[in-house]
Backbone:
């Protein structure tokens, strides 16, 4: 019997997320999926309904995906890049209209080209940046910078408890070096663990 079929969807997401964490803690970066409150904060003030192209990185169980799908316009091109094959399969089942590629976030330009695009208006990331090796961070950030349209917005998040750790501080400095504006949201206390959003503009 498939355990995930016998329990409610939200709990199924948590079980799936915990399994992924146990398989590779550094790749997942958390023991529970992001909350709806954090998802709302991630897309707040984003004009998704007027956007031409939106890309999501590391959607996991789809906490942010749902908010994005609810916000985009009918003509918006939207796809996601998810490295974990189990998450990718589950996302396709949960969101039949979603285009999800089982690949690394460092390959954004390749998939934009497949859709006849060169730039994205919004890149929304659920990646555990502080847990990623520096070389991989560099490659993914280069992919984001290369793929983001002038005036485009890159949105990601961090955990409050880790905000002052060396990796998190280095990542914040990196955002300041690459983007003309970096805004930090209020703490989303309803998330576990509590988190905040970085909204970065080219």
Residues:
């Amino acid at each position: 019997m498939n355990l995930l079929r016998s329990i409610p969807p939200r709990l199924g997401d948590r079980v799936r997320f915990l399994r992924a964490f146990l398989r590779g803690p550094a790749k997942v970066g958390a023991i529970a999926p992001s909350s709806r409150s954090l998802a709302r904060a991630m897309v707040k003030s984003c004009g998704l309904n007027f956007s031409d192209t939106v890309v999501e990185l590391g959607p996991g169980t789809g906490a942010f995906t749902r908010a994005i799908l609810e916000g985009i316009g009918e003509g918006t091109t939207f796809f996601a890049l998810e490295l974990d094959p189990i998450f990718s399969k589950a996302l396709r089942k949960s969101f039949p209209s979603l285009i999800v590629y089982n690949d690394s976030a460092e390959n954004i330009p390749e998939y934009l080209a497949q859709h006849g695009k060169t730039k994205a208006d919004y890149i929304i990331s659920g990646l555990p940046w502080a847990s990623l090796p520096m070389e991989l961070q560099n490659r993914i950030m280069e992919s984001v910078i290369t793929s983001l349209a002038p005036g485009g917005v890159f949105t990601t998040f961090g955990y409050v408890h880790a905000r002052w750790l060396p990796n998190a501080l280095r990542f914040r400095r990196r955002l300041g070096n690459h983007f003309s504006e970096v805004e930090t949201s209020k703490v989303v206390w309803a998330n576990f663990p509590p988190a905040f959003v970085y909204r970065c503009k080219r």
In short: The first helix runs from residue 9 to 23. Residues 1-18, 20-29 have pLDDT under 50 and may be disordered. Residues 3-201 form a domain with the Rossmann fold fold (CATH 3.40.50.150).
